[in-house]
Design a protein that fits this description.
Helix content is 19%, strand content 23%. It contains eight helices and 17 strands. The protein is α+β, with helices and mostly antiparallel strands. It has two domains: 137 residues, Jelly Rolls, CATH 2.60.120; 196 residues, 3-Layer(aba) Sandwich (Lysozyme-like), CATH 3.40.80.10. The radius of gyration is 21 Å and the shape is globular. The longest helix has 18 residues.
Length: 363
């Protein structure tokens, strides 16, 4: 249970790319999943409904912990504690921001050094019998650092794949729901400009897979709140988000520097698929995959981005599991959308960032 404690001391001296990130996933032992917790009928206030094992050691200093999840109603508390070679620290309650649909997220200012372990628990606080509580993710958070120039990336070795004939029609821009329609908040500061796009990175939102239009708009607003208020970013991190029914939403403007892969944001277009595809039994819908292919093909041909520069998040950050194993397995098919160029008469001409901004601007 405490095997990671043996490694903790060496982590303090270790330099890792993870240390560059302002947010990093809290990892546990192989095969561990945050469970869906059901409150026993005989549970009473104060009972611990679930407690995690110690996490793997943090690879960098952190200033806070964040988590997000979903439930049916209030009536529970979530506590976290840090663990070092000196033992388990004090359990501290996380202040949760809960939405009418049961989605929640929380942030707690709790500092730790590299090598620190984390534990989390859920307590009964008046919840209903058999109430289900799911924690989607837990992450370390540290000071935001200035984004340097794009690091060199190693293009992927792309195996030959059958071309998707459904994408052979003339190149047209996919329908994108603008920020004004889903009720986006304004960025907290002025955007930094995105340099000429060179790569595309695919993510999962690691959260709720909304299917209806109204639920999806609510979910993307929650993601934006989580990124702005929880992670203290200027806006939602992604450029595009795809809901469970295949609708594409504008995230931050295509001309703005994203916030979705630490130290690989310059020249990087971020596309997120709604859902948590690392959890057992969770899969992207066929409509999501079809729209992901269509969007990647359009952006790839527009900016001359080859298939070997279409990545999953974990390809660029080995400490991550994003976009989840169930979505990652589709990436060869997504890259196949760029395995053959569009017909010459439909090949896009070079554009300036100003002209691209005008074509993607909706408000």
């Amino acid at each position: 249970m405490y095997k990671w404690m043996i490694l903790a001391a060496s982590i303090f001296l270790r330099v890792s790319a993870w240390a560059e990130s302002s947010e990093a996933e809290v990892l546990f032992s192989d095969g561990f999943e945050m469970p869906v917790i059901a409150a026993p009928d005989n549970a009473i206030a104060g009972d611990v409904l679930w407690e995690s094992e110690p996490s793997r050691p943090a690879l960098a200093d952190f200033a806070a912990l964040l988590l997000q999840g979903q439930t049916e109603s209030l009536g529970f508390s979530i506590d976290v504690a840090t663990q070092t070679l000196g033992g388990l620290g004090v359990w501290r309650p996380v202040r949760l921001e809960v939405y009418p649909n049961g989605r929640f997220w929380g942030r707690i200012e709790i500092a730790g050094k590299a090598g620190t372990l984390v534990r989390v628990r859920v307590r009964h606080d008046g919840c209903k019998p058999s109430q289900r509580i799911e924690i989607f993710s837990l992450e370390f958070n540290g000071p935001r650092k200035t984004e340097p120039a794009l690091k060199s990336v190693v293009p992927l070795e792309v195996s030959p794949a059958a071309y998707d004939s459904s994408l052979s029609r003339p190149l047209t821009k996919p329908a994108v729901i603008p920020r004004s329609e889903w009720g986006a908040a304004k960025p907290t500061v002025a955007y930094e400009p995105l340099t000429t796009p060179q790569i595309i990175t695919v993510h999962h939102t690691e959260a709720y897979q909304a299917m209806s239009y109204e639920h999806a708009k609510e979910e993307i607003r929650i993601i934006q709140h989580y990124h702005q208020r929880g992670r203290h970013w200027d806006d939602i991190g992604y450029h595009f988000v795809i809901d469970g029914s295949g609708r594409i939403y504008e995230g931050r403007p295509i001309t703005a520097l994203g916030a979705h892969v630490a130290y690989f944001n310059p020249g990087n277009i971020g596309i997120a698929v709604m859902g948590n595809f690392q959890k057992m039994g969770r899969r992207p819908t066929q409509k999501q995959i079809a729209k992901l292919k269509e969007l990647v093909r359009y952006l790839g041909l527009l900016y001359s981005i080859p298939a070997k520069r279409v990545f999953g998040h974990k390809d660029l950050d080995k400490s991550r599991k994003c976009p989840g194993k169930a979505l990652y397995r589709y990436l060869p098919e997504v890259r196949a959308a760029l395995s053959r160029p569009a017909p010459a008469k439909t090949r896009p001409v070079a554009e300036t960032l100003d002209s691209v901004y005008a074509r993607f601007r909706f408000d």
